[in-house]
Amino acid sequence: MQVTLKIFRYRPEVDKTFHYETYTLEAAETDRVLDVLERVKGELDGSLSFRRSCAHGVCGSDAVRINGRNMLACKTLIRDVGDKITVEPLLGLKVIKDLIVDMEPFFDNYKKILPYFINDSPLPADGKERLQSPEERARFDETTKCILCAACTTSCPSFWASDQYYGPAALVTAHRFIFDSRDEAAAERLHILAETDGLARCHTAYNCTLACPREIHITKAIGELKLATITGKVG
Amino acid sequence: MANIHQFDVVVVGAGGAGLTAGLYASRTAKTAVISKLYPTRSHTGAAQGGIGAALGNLEEDRPEWHTYDTVKGSDYLGDQDAIEFMCNEAPQIVYELEHMGLPFDRTPDGRIAQRPFGGHTNNVTGKPVRRACHAADRTGHMILQTLYQQCLKNNVNFFDEFQVVDVLIENGKAAGVVALEIATSELHVFHAKAVIFATGGHGRIWEITSNAYALTGDGIAVALRRGVPAEDMEFFQFHPTGIYKLGILITEGVRGEGGVLINDKGERFMEKYAPKVKDLASRDVVSRSIYLEIREGRGINGSNYVYLDVRPETVNKYAALDGRTNPDGSPYTVTGEQILQKLPDIIDFCRTYLGVDPVTQPMPIQPTAHYAMGGIPTNMYGEVVIDEKNTVMPGLYAAGECACVSVHGANRLGTNSLLDIVVFGKYAGIKAAEYANGADFTPLPADPDGFARQQFDRLRNNQGNENVFQISQEMKREMFDNMGVFRTAETMTHALNKIHELQERAKHIKLTDTGKVFNTELLNAWELTNLLDLAEVTTVSALARQESRGGHAREDFPKRDDVNWLKHTLAWKQNGKVTLGYKPVVITKYQPKERVY
Question: I need a surface site. Which of A59, B372, B558, B565 has the fewest CB within 10 A?
Fold first, then answer.
């Protein structure tokens, strides 16, 4: 089938402002949007720039806007989006070139919520694993799936308004640790989440949940965090 | 003049090996980790099934059994001292990962859950043993995230989206690396006392591969250009179960949970090739079996793929025939819901890319280029050794897939790569920091970034009309057709001639992007030169080895030949020419014998 791609282009060394370019090529309906982007770059215009690595939805490099929605280009097939495809960079982060945005504010927000396991208690005397029941492990399973692709955070109107807002991805990571029975810093993290740029900026637009390529129920996870800040209870 | 940075230890690559090395080195030395990707984009995150360690959480298991299985899996080409070291270290490093917060799945009594994997056995009964410690089917993702998080906690210095382009060696010692900042195309010199390469694999040489776009063998290629050899490059693993046409990996954990391979006649054909462990034989054995079935016309509808079937009714039927039991002795059965819970990502991949639901339909699969057993030669402390006598190059270290210790020999067992990256990443980090703390900086050469600058100037100013994408496609197709699961002198010679042609043509690549900001076309062109060099070294090493062993299967030399070929290949590339040497395999407890599964 013939596919028409309209791609956002901005080369900072040449262009004063952005524009769109249209490319037409033959593709199969089972091709990934990333496959088609690769072919545009390889066969039609070598200057087109975008990030990609694993090409099957686990590394989080190629989150872009496809027909207006945040998706991973490698996890979206032509048959999912049709033969007229508009590809644009994520919103809310500065465009550096073409589909590449500045990820630093995103990772800066991630770092705010102490995104690492904290447990300063002595290890088990036998040196083996800390015990955790399958039920305790299941409690935070979903939020361990996050690949930090930023599809959620850059779909959030509150993040568009202020990139100081931690954003859904950082909150998902906070949830992963706060609800881990082995972690000991829940109170500290809940305190951080209670700051102005934390949970209060989530107005439950649900965009994040719709955007997540890992199908994490982000709004639900944020809801659980909000409840925990009110009750002080984690469970 | 380039930007100059100074660190005691510089780690190149931020996958599992690089992050582990960075984490341990940073405890005692000023350490930087540079990576062409954001660390969490590294391909460790794609590893699915598990990390091998004889914890014995669900049944009896011992590090000695793990050692023997790995030696046997390597087709006796692995160095037995290093294998024993890795398998003995395995339980400790898995506990360390748990202590860092890694969310392993759990047994009913709260311990780390384990599942069977190909080639891992109870050495008394010969039956598969539960040795793979797992976090659903995203174990690598959890390892990568956990290590990155701990590095942040420990204030490791990261240089994200910096592409390594050269390693500096002065007076026989490592003096640092040169890297290109992708956002600006500026060159940076990292002056260091110790350098650790952890740059991953090079599966992008082949057309059908499980490997990420980023896996272009940069570390091995850069080291080769500075006179460091590459070891055992002819041994590259084709994983039996890649998604048909796409190559995306379907974890061996699917077969660990009871999935079976089925041909066009509906037969479970692995019974013929590996009567004892069947679908859980070593990967090289299973990949060859699939090829043979396809060649004899038993691919699905006569095509070049077979089915991997994990539907509950299929799993339960064959589990009953095999007499498979749960740890409590009851018969092993699964439900669709349990399959979904244990293999969520696999099911997601199949639904997304194939429109197939593995709970109700079989998955079309074919072997996919997966893992480099070969790489930069090291000893078991990650120190790079540069000749037949294992002479250490001071200050240079390598760990993970880009290194060849060698613990995988001619064929790697599933779950041993995640183990490799954390065990040898850890020791490379510790040893590099120790070395750095007792050493002075080797002075930088004059014009330290000169060699790198030359390479990039040439790529920018090439005259001609060749295209990066086109050459890359031709290389991949050639290597998959002629340097794949089965090889002969004829196919390999064909491949070598083609590689030489492509290397010439690559000198005439014309770039359309002349900018400096995120010039990914320029980087792709440079990565292609790396892939072509490694394809050449792989093919030359393979042509010379006149036997079949592990991942190197020659139809013109179908038998293993321990008299002449029980030795490691070393390949140097200098003045445009590949030369070969050999060094002995370390054999301690296990004399080579025929390998039967």
Answer: B558
